[in-house]
Amino acid sequence: MVTVVLGNTLSFTQDVTAKQFAESEKAIVSVLGDLSRIALFSSELDDLQQYLDRVAVDPRVQTIYVGDSQKTVVVSTDFSLVGKPVPALSNSEQSFWRTAELGSYGSIAVEFSNQGLQQATEQAARRGIALALSGMGTIALAGVFFGYLLTRRLTVLTDVTRKFAEGNLDVRANLKGSDEVASVGMTFDAMAFKITQDIRELEKRQTELQAARDELEHRVEERTAELNKANKKLQELSEIDTLTRLPNRRRFDDAIVEALAEAEYHREPVTLAVLDIDHFKKLNDELGHFEGDVCLQKVASAIKSCASRPKDMVARYGGEEFVMILPSTNGAQAVRVLEKVRKEVEKLSAPDRKISISIGYCTVENGNISVEQFFRQADDALYKAKEGGRNRVERY
Fold first, then answer.
1. Can you give the pLDDT at residue 332?
2. What is the percentage of the chain residues whose pLDDT exceeds 70?
3. Given this model, what pLDDT does residue 118 score?
4. How many C-beta neighbours within 10 Å does residue 140 have?
5. Is the dihedral of CA 347, 351, 352, 354 positive or negative?
6. For 305, which of 83, 213, 221, 390 is 20 to 30 Å away at the CA?
7. Region for 389 from its dihedrals, namely left if φ exceeds 0, alpha if ψ lies in -120 to 50, beta otherwise
8. How far apart are CA 48 and CA 36, in angstroms?
9. Residue 205 pLDDT grade (very low, low, confident, very high; cuts 50, 70, 90)
10. Structural fold of domain 249-395
């Protein structure tokens, strides 16, 4: 009966011890995996080497290596493995491997010796056999007691490592003694302290880096807004006639292409008019360039006042010549607008000088004409207006 009780007690202790050792080993690999992931991310491989060396003090740990995403060993307690492809793993009676994937960073493998489990089991057996001499009751009680003590300490260590791996960075094992479980616990506590420091330092760096990125993005946005504003201003300056504040020939060249494309797309008429101040050279020579500039400004304003729709465009083509683009405007509509322009300009005349304008225009249906031909036809109509006595509107 003594043998049966002792056998049951030792079997229970061995099963529980093996289970707790396995949980402890998995937790150690998990924690080392978190540490390795951080080290690979921050390229602090020297610190990682120090951590692995500390863990390797545990008599159960034989070899540790960390492989990167290229499956090359970058850190190991066996220096002969560093720089080589990760080795093929095989278990034996003396040792076995536990591994963990580190996502896109790589992997970690830890080789554990079976000696620790064997020694723990043998210690329980020796204690049970020694106490068996005192009687069956004492044997059973002692076996259960020592099994409970070992199981409790391993449970504490397993629970602590699990909580740490889940993110509780302040948890510690605080195991005392000289046995293997206490040695693993103290090694874990030292490693957890360093990992906690590194994680919090990394979080601090990430916070500072994010703040720097936000500041940089803010500055870039401000600078981009300033550049966009400056570019818009330059664009406006490059397309505006400085004297009359009308769009210049460059803007007109783009606008006429757009107007013909729109007319063709919507199958609508479009009118182009070319306007020229009559006898402007004589006025400029007699009254001077200053008065000539004033005249140009007044004429530009008069023409602009007659282009009432937002899509209508008036531009200074060059010298005393202006152009008008009237989208969605047929010939009859165009002549009414242009006659109004002629009369408004005529109102600028003074007793000592007459101001008038000659206008030629061309209307096309559906925008089916080239820019060059469109302008040439409107210009031919202008020539006809001048030949006909000036201060008049002529259609091509």
1. 94
2. 83
3. 67
4. 18
5. positive
6. 390
7. left
8. 7
9. confident
10. Alpha-Beta Plaits (3.30.70)
Three-class HEC string of the chain: CHHHHHHHHHHHHHHHHHHHHHHHHHHHHHHHHHHHHHHHHHCCHHHHHHHHHHHCCCCCEEEEEEEECCCEEEEECCHHHCCCECCCCCCCCCEEEEEEECHHHEEEEEEEECHHHHHHHHHHHHHHHHHHCCCHHHHHHHHHHHHHHHHHHHHHHHHHHHHHHCCCCCCCCCCCCCCHHHHHHHHHHHHHHHHHHHHHHHHHHHHHHHHHHHHHHHHHHHHHHHHHHHHHHHHHHHHECCCCCCECHHHHHHHHHHHHHHHHHHCCCEEEEEEEECCHHHHHHHHCHHHHHHHHHHHHHHHHHHCCCCCCEEEEEECCEEEEEEECCCHHHHHHHHHHHHHHHHCCCECCECCCEEEEEEEECCCCCCHHHHHHHHHHHHHHHHHCCCCCEEEC
Q: Is the pLDDT of residue 29 over 70?
A: yes
The position carrying tokens 């560093």 is: 82
What gap in Å lies between CA 382 and CA 274, rounded to an integer? 6
> What would the pLDDT profile of 107-135 be if each residue is shown by its tens digit?
999 988 877 666 666 665 565 555 544 55
Domain boundaries, the chain: 2-205, 249-395
Q: What does the pLDDT read at residue 292?
A: 92
What's the rounded mean pLDDT across residues 262-286?
A: 93
Residue owning tokens 């300009």: 345
Residue 2 clears pLDDT 60, i.e. is over it: no
Closest CA to 131 of 120, 146, 142, 116: 142
Question: Given a cut of 90, is residue 172 above it in pLDDT?
Answer: no
pLDDT of 67 strictly over 90: yes
Q: What phi, psi does 26 have (nearest 5°)?
A: -65, -40
The string over 208-234, giving b where at least 16 C-beta atoms fall within 10 Å of a residue's C-beta and e elsewhere, is: eeeeeeeeeeeeeeeeeeeeeeeeeee
Ramachandran angles phi, psi of 389, nearest 5° = 120, 0
Give the pLDDT of residue 129: 53
- C-alpha pair distances (Å), 89 with each of 65, 111, 188, 264: 11, 9, 25, 75
Mean pLDDT (the chain, rounded): 83
